[in-house]
Amino acid sequence: APKNAGEQKKGAQNSKGKSGKFVLKTPKGTRDYNPAEMAVRRKVFNTIYSVFHMHGAVEIETPVFELKEVLTGKYGEDSKLIYDLEDQGGEILSLRYDLTVPFARYVAMNKITNIKRYHVARVYRRDNPAMTRGRYREFYQCDFDIAGQYEAMLPDAECVQLVHQVLSKLDLGEYTIKINHRKILDGVFGACGVPAEKFRPICSAVDKLDKSPWEEVRKEMVDEKGLDPSVADTIGEYVKLSGREELIEKLENDERLKGSAAAQAGFADLKLLFEYSKALGCDTYLVFDMGLARGLDYYTGVIYEAVLKAGQEGGEEGTVGSVAGGGRYDQLVGMFDPKKKTVPCVGVSFGIERLFAIQERKDKAQTDKIRATQTEVFVASACKGMLMERLKLLGTLHTAGIKAESSYKNNPKLLNQLQYAEDNGIPMVVLIGESEVQEGVVKVRNTSSREEVTVKRDELTTVIKQRLTVNL
Amino acid sequence: APKNAGEQKKGAQNSKGKSGKFVLKTPKGTRDYNPAEMAVRRKVFNTIYSVFHMHGAVEIETPVFELKEVLTGKYGEDSKLIYDLEDQGGEILSLRYDLTVPFARYVAMNKITNIKRYHVARVYRRDNPAMTRGRYREFYQCDFDIAGQYEAMLPDAECVQLVHQVLSKLDLGEYTIKINHRKILDGVFGACGVPAEKFRPICSAVDKLDKSPWEEVRKEMVDEKGLDPSVADTIGEYVKLSGREELIEKLENDERLKGSAAAQAGFADLKLLFEYSKALGCDTYLVFDMGLARGLDYYTGVIYEAVLKAGQEGGEEGTVGSVAGGGRYDQLVGMFDPKKKTVPCVGVSFGIERLFAIQERKDKAQTDKIRATQTEVFVASACKGMLMERLKLLGTLHTAGIKAESSYKNNPKLLNQLQYAEDNGIPMVVLIGESEVQEGVVKVRNTSSREEVTVKRDELTTVIKQRLTVNL
Question: ipTM of this model?
Answer without folding.
Answer: 0.88
